[in-house]
Amino acid sequence: MTVSKTIARLTVGFATLFYFSAANAQFTKYVQPMAGTGIATTASATKHGENADTRFANTIPAVTLPFAMTQWAPQTQAGETKCVPPYYYKDNRFGGIRGSHWLSGSCTQDYGSFTIMPISGKLKTANYHATFSHTDEVATPYKYTIDLKQYQLQASVTSTLRSGMMQFTMDKADSLYLLVSANSNYQEGFVKVDAQRGEISGYNPAHRIYQGWGKSAGFSGYFVIRFERQLTSTGTFSNDKIFKLDSIKNEKGNGVYAGFKLNKGEKLTIRMGTSFTGLDGARKNLQAEMPGFNFDQAVANSKAVWEKALGQINVQTVDERDKRIFYTSYYHAMQHPRLFSDVDGKYPRFAGNYQNEQLAKGQHYYDDFSMWDIYRAQIPLFEILDPPMIGSFVNSLLLKGQQGGWMPIFPCWNSYTSEMIGDHTTSVISSAYLKGIRGYNVDQAYQILRHNAFDINTNRADYVEGKGRRALDSHLKYGYIPVEDSVLDAFHKMEQVSRTMEYAYDDYALAQFAKGINKTADHNTLMKRAGYYKNIFDTSTGFVRGRHADGSWVSPFDPDKKATFITEGTARQYTFYVPHDVAGLSKLMGGSKKLETALDDLFSKGEYWHGNEPGHQIPFMYNYTSSPWKTQAAVRQILADEYSDGPGGLGGNDDAGQMSAWYMFASLGFYPVNPVSGEYLLCAPLFDKAIIKLKNSKAFQLIAHKKSKTAQYIYAVKLNGKVMPNSYIRYKDIIVGAKLEVFLQDTPAANWANKSQYQPKGM
């Protein structure tokens, strides 16, 4: 049974109760939702982050379920502004509980959200924020509670996949007012109170950013709120102006209020349903997932789902801090992609205009794929943990390609964005096919990916909207993207060298897909293009470098300074982005010893930047040299330096769980440098033992045999009891259930896996 089906089963109704005492909380007790909500203080973040604002991990203390539609989070930052999450740990003014669609760990924008703020005493609709301290908060994945001393009340929230429940407890006899705001930055929100029905409803239209910035995304975030008692005192407001009306629309700071008289200790419980298809969808989702008002029961159900999800990996160590970082990473890695379909299978058409589509029974539609980030480790993680869910992700991506005509580059807020570079949906879908993951039409999948890779979009209007690979015409003409092509029709303009390199990887990925379905001509063409990274490698300097259309190199050149032809980094950092052909890169450099020296230089100069994704494979690349032990040392150092369990516990944007997934892989002892290959480079496990429960009822066990507590260097590996000389393990070995034993000592084992025959071959 897939994670999504398990969640659906657990959250539809309350026929079965799932109660867990604190002692039963085996895994959720380790999750630290505040991790990543503060400014990163790691060495690489301080050096490479442009300013303090870019060093926020931008995670939020989300109360949600794995891959849910809506996250419920405390709000300290109002509105839906790019790069500003609903919550910062540095803040001390509480503005309510938000039903959020924030892309966890990102620098994008929230959309379609709404906020509920409780106040007591006299009604006020402006300057109502409550001062708080972090000792007033209790945050878990399944419940958030805050003590608002200023108002002498407590507010709590819990969640299902598409709905939530809040409970307010009074510390004094007084009036309780709930202020419900649609958070539209475009003054387009609508909120209505229906006292007879006992319901508040509304919507907040979503807008695009990047390609088509500011245009309608073609859907809204809809919500309905149901109350356990009759509504008597109600009205609307626009900032500090209060009206005795039942609805308000397209006003700045608009919302509705509902007032109640409560005694000391009395509780008020409300239920909230959300949808992207309409108010009817929100009502159906609420009725299916939360038909009653039993708050404790709802909390227990949510907790049970998280315990089951987190319990799929059981790590064993005496270091409780490492467990906290691991399970917090796991929690962060399960925020996205986001469920976008209702309980009845309706979902908004991709890149549409308020049209809804219908899924077949049992299917789910997902969106918010931070694709440039998550194809590296977060998606590969769930290829192991939940292959059927990956099939559902792939099917969702294919629906986007079919409905929009082109496969989206970075599909978020159900729209074309062309944010970031590359075409990494190709990697995700090709990888799924090669690993035997199905649940979609294989031929259609290949044709849509091929369309992006081979066809130049000549429809100017469509291209500007984000349809088709950026600068594909230049890439195919020159075998690289020259600096004369500024790639103007993209949010990330220029970045020609990085684009060339990432297209090379994507073409390699599609070539493997083509080979698997006997598209020989395509395979040969794509494999040639997979080598285009060589065309922007300058052998005289040993780095990738900007190149003119006439073949000459851009000058002056400093590999350690940020350049317009590199994405979010330097030439030194990006030189190592050849995940599909490390052996080929090594040859360009002059051999594996030169590759090792280049890696040494990167680390010794302090140029490794863990807070951004292009370098995430770099520490594992020593496994392609005669010194794999350096991977073991580098990874262990990064685990120690770049992650903690505090608010500043991530060295940069978590980017929908990629940073967190890196930690999970690296701490377990293996990592997918070349995600499409099904090969995982080994490093020293951080834990004594880890058991991964697979969906086929098998298990993948990782056991570390240490000569001492500090041992971190591999001197031998066994797979299912047999000595394995390779520096990598294959997906096909993991997914059938296996036992991997790694033997560690305190000093480097210079002879372990130090020859090319024990290393992945790449191209």
Task: Calculate the mean pLDDT score and round it.
Answer: 94
Strand order of the largest sheet: 6-7-8-9-18-13-12-11-16
Assign the structural class, choosing from mainly alpha, mainly beta, alpha/beta, alpha+beta, or little secondary structure: alpha+beta
| Number of β-strand runs | 33
Largest sheet: 9 strands, antiparallel
Give the terminus-to-terminus CA distance: 36 Å
What is the helix tally? 20
Helicity range of the residues?
25-40%
Please characterize this protein's 3D structure.
The protein is of the alpha+beta class. It contains 20 helices and 33 strands. The strands form eight sheets. Strands 6-7-8-9-18-13-12-11-16 form a nine-stranded antiparallel β-sheet. Strands 1-3-4-10-17-14-15 form a seven-stranded antiparallel β-sheet, with no helix packed on it. The protein has a six-stranded mixed β-sheet with strand order 19-28-29-33-30-31, with helices on one face. Helix 10 packs antiparallel against helix 13, helix 13 (496-516) runs antiparallel to helix 14 (520-530) and helix 16 packs across helix 17. The chain is globular, with a radius of gyration of 26 Å.
Please give the structural blueprint:
Elements lengths: L2 H9 L31 H6 L22 E4 L18 E2 L2 E4 L13 E7 L9 E2 L5 E3 L4 E5 L4 E7 L3 E8 L3 E9 L7 E5 L4 E9 L8 E12 L5 E6 L2 E3 L3 E3 L4 E9 L4 E9 L3 H11 L5 H16 L2 E4 L3 H14 L4 E2 L6 E3 L7 E3 L7 E2 L3 H4 L3 H8 L1 H18 L20 H10 L7 H13 L5 H5 L7 H7 L17 H21 L3 H11 L6 E2 L4 E2 L26 H4 L7 H8 L2 H13 L24 H13 L16 H11 L1 E2 L7 E4 L6 E5 L5 E8 L6 E7 L2 E2 L4 E3 H4 L3 E8 L18
Parallel strand pairs: 29-33
Antiparallel strand pairs: 1-3, 2-5, 3-4, 4-10, 6-7, 7-8, 8-9, 9-18, 10-17, 11-12, 11-16, 12-13, 13-18, 14-15, 14-17, 19-28, 20-23, 21-22, 24-25, 26-27, 27-32, 28-29, 30-31, 30-33
Helix pairs in contact: 1-4, 5-19, 7-8, 8-9, 9-10, 9-13, 10-13, 13-14, 16-17
